Amino acid sequence: xxxSTQTSIDLAQINTEALAVGVFKNQVLSPAAEQIDQxxxxxxxxxxxxxxxxxxxxSLVLRQLPGVAAKRVVIIGLxxxxxxxxxxxxxAEATFATYAKSASIKEVTSTLxxxxxxxxxxxxxxxxxxxxxxxxxYKYDATLSTKDDAPSQIEQAAIWSAPTxxxxxxxxxAQGKAIADGVNFTRLLADLPPNICTPTFLAQEAKxxxxxxxxxxxxxxxxxxxxxxxMGSFLSVAKGSDEPPVFIVIKHTPTTSSDEAPLVLVGKxxxxxxxxxxxxxxxxxxxxxxxxxxxxxxxxxxxxVAELNLDREIIGIIASCENMPSGRANKPGDxxxxxxxxxxxxxxxxxEGRLVLCDALTYAERFNPAAVINIATLTGACIVALGDxxxxxxxxxxxxxxxxxxxxxxxxxxxxxLPITDEYQAKLKSNFADIANIGSPGAGSxxxxxxxxxxxxxYPWAHLDVAGTAxxxxxxxxxxxxxxxxxxxxxxNQTA
Length: 496
Ligand code: BES
Ligand code: MN
Ligand code: ZN
Fold this sequence. Notes:
Elements: E1 2-6, E2 18-24, E3 28-29, H1 31-39, H2 43-48, E4 59-63, E5 72-77, H3 86-102, E6 107-110, H4 122-135, E7 156-160, H5 166-191, H6 199-212, E8 216-221, H7 223-228, H8 232-238, E9 246-252, E10 263-273, H9 293-308, E11 314-323, E12 334-337, E13 343-346, H10 353-363, E14 371-376, H11 380-386, E15 391-395, H12 398-411, E16 415-417, H13 422-425, E17 435-436, H14 444-453, E18 461-465, E19 471-472, E20 478-479, H15 484-495
Parallel strand pairs: 1-7, 2-5, 2-6, 6-7, 10-11, 10-14, 13-17, 14-18, 15-16
Antiparallel strand pairs: 2-3, 4-5, 8-9, 9-11, 12-13, 15-18, 19-20
Helix pairs in contact: 3-4, 4-5, 5-9, 8-10, 9-15, 10-14, 12-15
The chain binds ligand BES, manganese (II) ion (MN) and zinc ion.
Ligand BES binds near residues 350, 352, 379 and 438.
C-alpha cells in the first residue's frame, strides 16, 4: 500500500473513492465532517438524528453528495468526545479500513488523524492510521486451493491534514507502513502450517530478506556449526526431530555507522512443539505451530528496521527446531550441558523453549549488546495470568523495562511486568544438575523467566512472554503480529 499526505484546504474538492470523516456521539462533528456538512448543505447533520449515533465501531456511507467531489463520504463513529484518545483513533481508522476492504475500494482518503487527542501527536496518529489501514490488507490464503484472483487490497491511502503538518505526517506514515508490513509478514510466517514452515523454511525466508534489503546481512548456522558452538541445550531439543535445526543471525548495519553498542532481539523458533516425550494433550495441539511466534516477530521487526533504515546496529537471532517425541528425544531426567557450561536437568521435555533460548542468549554475549530482548511463546501459565491482553514482561534492568513499557503505550501493544526474584529462583533447584528446567510449585511464567535470567547476567535484558498475545484462538484463529509494533517503536525510540 502507498501512503501520501493530502493537504488541500478545501475538503469538498478532493477527488477520492472514499473520504472518511469522524463524528462523535451527541451530534458533535469533527472539523472535517463540519466542512463536508457545509459543502453538502447539511447532508451529514441530516442523518445524525436518525440513522447514525456516532458510536465507536459504526460507520455510514453517503454517496455522491451535492457539492462534494469524493465518490463516497464514510462517516465514522468516534464515540464520546471526552473519552476520545489515541486508542479510539486507531479503532476508528480500523473501522474505516474494514469498510474499504469489504467494499473492494482501492483508493481512500482519511481525515481521522487530523482530530486531536490529549495523548498523541500528529506523527503518532499518522503512524496509527498507516498501521490500521495496512493491517486490513492481510488475509491468509497461502494454502487455500481457491484463491481470490483479484484480492481486494487498499492500494493507496491519503492522510488529510493542514499543510503545516505534512512533514510530521510523512514521518508517521513511513513508520506506520514499516510496522504494518512487518506485522503482516510476521502473521504470514506464523500462520503457515508446520509442515511448510520448518526451521529450514525460516532460514530460506531469512536469506530472501537479506537479498531484498541491502542493510541486512544474514547468516545461517546448521547443525554442525551449532555443535561446534557447544549449544548442547538447544541441540538436545532439536535431536528428537527429523527436521534439522537452524540458528539464524540477521544483522542490520545502518549506512551512517553509529558507534553505539548494538541492540539484539532473540526469538524462540519452535516450528512445532508437540511437548516431546512429555507429550501435550491432543486438544488444540495444532496451535503449537505458533510456537515460532517469537521468531516470526523478530523477522517482522527486522524487516521494519531495514525498511526504515534505522540508524543503529540491530541484530535478530532465531534459534529454530521442532520439539518431537522419538528415540533420540530428550527424556525426563536427562542432564544436558548448555553453551554457557551450566548443566540442566530436563524434568519436563515440554519446557523446551527455555532450553533453546538459553544457548541463543549466551551466543548474544559476543555482540557486547547495549540490550537484549527475547520474545517467546514460553508458558501456558502466562495465558492464565494475563490472557490475550498483555504480553508478560520480565527484566533484569529497570531502565530497559521502562523503555519497553513506554513503547508499549505508544503502540497500544500491551505488556505487564512480573517479578524475577531470588525466592522464585530457588524453585529451579536440581539435585542432579546446576539448574532444573521447570520450577515448582506455581508461578510457571516467572520460573521460566528465572531460568532465562541465569543466562543473561552479562547485559541488560528483557523477556516478552507472548504465549497469550501472538495469536488468537477460536473461530478467528490467526496470528496477531504482536509484539512487532512494540518492538519497532522501542527501536525507533532508541535511534531518535
Ligand atoms: N510453547 C509452550 C507454551 C505454550 C503453551 C504457549 C500453550 C501457548 C499456549 C511451552 O513450550 C510449554 O509447553 N511450556 C510448558 C512449561 C511447563 C512444562 C513447565 C507449559 O506452559 O505448560
Ligand atoms: Mn513446550
Ligand atoms: Zn514451546
